[in-house]
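INFO  loader      accepted 1 record
INFO  loader      residues=179
INFO  predictor   begin
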Amino acid sequence: MRQRNEEVTKEKILQAAAEVFAEEDFFKASVDQVCKKAGVSKGIIFWHFKTKDQLILEVAKKSLPLDIVESCLKEKENTLECIGNKYLEKYDNPIMRKLFLHTISAMNIYKELGDDIRELCDSLVKKISKCALNSESNEDIIRIRSFMGGLLCYVVNPPNIDKKTYVNTLIKIALAKET
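INFO  predictor   done
INFO  writer      dumping tokens
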């Protein structure tokens, strides 16, 4: 029971931190703001997270699309459609969208975040290419990077195009081979 309460408290802190960090950004937001939003003391926050940086890292990592890519790679079918739909769904949430953009901007400050983003852009892109295109050629890796970049552009500045059409068009472009 105690462990369950601790997990609930930790999740409450993470949710409050996500909301505060999304609004203020990681560096302007204070731990006091997170405490107030979560309804807990500073001591409770620092019991779960030893430093503000540790809290930032945990929140920032949850904002990355790593979970989406990993789950869609496991499905093995319609990988690009799965990634595209789940990606746009995740970042349809304004808190996640803002956090994701803050996370990208913080990647040079936090080595761990930079490593995770590079992992997404390098080895995970290769895995997506292998799964979706059955190839890891440079051309196909570039196709997948373009696909992922198109998703990122949607998050940064959503066009006046419905999500389904947008994802399907990105997939069609990624799958198109020159003859």
